[in-house]
Specification:
With about 700 residues, this protein is an alpha+beta fold. The chain contains 28 helices and 12 strands. The strands form 4 sheets. A 4-stranded antiparallel beta sheet has the order 9-12-10-11. Strands 1-2-3 form a 3-stranded mixed beta sheet. A 3-stranded mixed beta sheet has the order 4-5-6. Helix 21 links the parallel strand 1 and strand 2. Helix 7 packs antiparallel against helix 8 and helix 17 crosses helix 18. The longest helix has about 30 residues.
Length: about 700
Amino acid sequence: MERGGRALLRTLSGSVRAAVGDEHGVFLGLVIVVGCLAALVSTLLRTTTSGITGLVTGRWAGMLEVTSALPLWARVALPAGAALVAGLILARLRPDAGGETIAGVMEVVALGKRRDQIQPVLGRAASTVVALAGGSSLGQEGPIAALSTRLSAWVGARARLSDEPFKILSACGLAASLSVAYNTPIAATLFVLEIIIGSLNPRFLGPVIMASAVAAIAQHSVTASSPLYAGTFAVYSPVTELLGYALVGLATGVAAALFRACMKLARVAFDYLPASVPTRMFVGGALVGLIGIPLPYVYGNGYDTINLLIHEDGLGKNALPAILLAAVLVVGKILATSLSAGSGVSGGVFTPTLFVGAAAGAAVGGILHLLWPTVFAGGASYALLGMGGAIAGATRAPFLAIIMPFELTGDVGIFVPQMVVVILALASSRALQRESIYTAELKRKGIIWEGSPEERVLRSLKVRDIVRRDVTLVPDTLPFGQVLQFFLSGRNVYAYVGTKDGKFLGVVDIHDLKEVLSEDLGHLVLARDLVRSVPTLTLDEPLTRANQALWYRDVGQLPVVTSAQDQHFEGLVTRRDLLATFDREVLKRNVMLSRFVHTDEGGEVAEAFEIPEERSLQQIKVPPSLVGATIGEADIRRRFEINVLTITRYAADGRRTCIEPTPQTRLEYGDTLTVLGKAELVRRFQEIQGRGDGTPVGGDGRKVPGP
């Protein structure tokens, strides 16, 4: 296994370098580091969680065995108390602190959000581990994925990776974490490509596979490499059992949709609960404990119970009581997980999804086997199929749902039946719930995940990101003569009219003045008398909506107001700026319009500014030959005709500082220069200085060579 893994790494290294180029010359090493970190994080968090459970209960065993042995009062007190402690830990963090949920990782990787602070995710992980140790009905893959992905981002930021390699490395962190969480490197790769990226993007493919392989090898060096759920798939009659496969697919699709609906309902209910975060989590834990009194199977991620469901001798699936128990477990696990997640615990929902699918499959298979024992294989085999069906229904990722049960069990015979189950589960779940369990969370943040990757990027950007704020709002009391002068004094085609407190009333078109001029009524007319209403955009609408509005109106610009309720005038969105944003965000050419962030009285504000023709705004590493030189000594502007706008520098503790360059500013190793100039001149600057041609100027009086 180890020898094969090392051969795989050598084979993939060429793919990785082709994917990301030779930027920094260390990306391959970073991918390996990320894979090893994920294995380390998985080992530490799993050990810590089980250790806390053992210390509190005095029993060192699986969650099902531990909780089954507890007295009834303790079955409530354990999850409630642990959730309360977890809530107190969480309350000490910033209100926005949090570990990266899968939806959060989707923002980082697919939408280019950069998040690299470690402290918030460490606090959230500590809170989650405590809650899971007490039996909260969520998966350990949640904190493992959160911490591994954020560590990957932290490594990428410290390596000063540009946006594209940074996103790839973040995706590698997620893949590596799932690889070690389930011992499924292939499924982990598919998870990232199918759910996070949305396509088999070749730039991500090689690095993600490599990170998954490295993590699996590192994990296998300290633990056994056997499948997580070693069940056996049996087939009695391949043709007639198609009916059973179809029923499992429909049942697990419905169960996945019910799971999604219950989670939404629980989150809304806890949002309306007038209580602090610790109190909400305490209530959620106590309710889980009440469910656990008759059903201790629902505590934790459900690993022990899944193993019982996929083995014929586990719950005795051919008996009616066991079949009824499996059906009850579907509802019980959905409720327990919804309560845990809705109250604020940030564990994973992927393993509970496997639980729900296995229980639903076991119930369907058990009934069929009870009625026709010589035709249908029974609950254990159908429980295996149910896991894939639930994955498909919850995630909308059919390839992942087909491959993952095979990796979880190691049984190749499951492939063809799993295809039938997955397709029907996908169809039935989609008919009941439009969003997946992950895209629903993004929708709560105002991000719509439908469409192509390019469309998602544009949807993630808001009107506020490109609004032009330097627009004059004409007072509604302005006399006609002054309105006319407003048009004559410039190239204005429209006058945007509002009240003195900034409320937008409408627009005056230059052609609207003709009738007033022809009837000589100017002395009686004010600006508000000429106003006509036009559609408006709001600051928080996506750019796809702005594009649609401009298209239907066939105009070059539309006014922007604060919100539908607050009609305060904010500025304009123009078709020209929209096209420039498409050029930058989709075509990746920063040559027309660039975003910048500044701070005003309301906090950070993202705006855009136009780049001069034939110029490009780029971020580059300071060339090695200029390290130690001052800006004045390097004389970059005169020699290369490019302007250094800012210098980004990291301190020893990882803190990032943006510096305004002066002639006396000395360049240091690791600095990132934001430069404006012709793209070919920037490349020439990098080539000449990066090769170290000539002798640069430093603090000791060395001279900088000419270009």
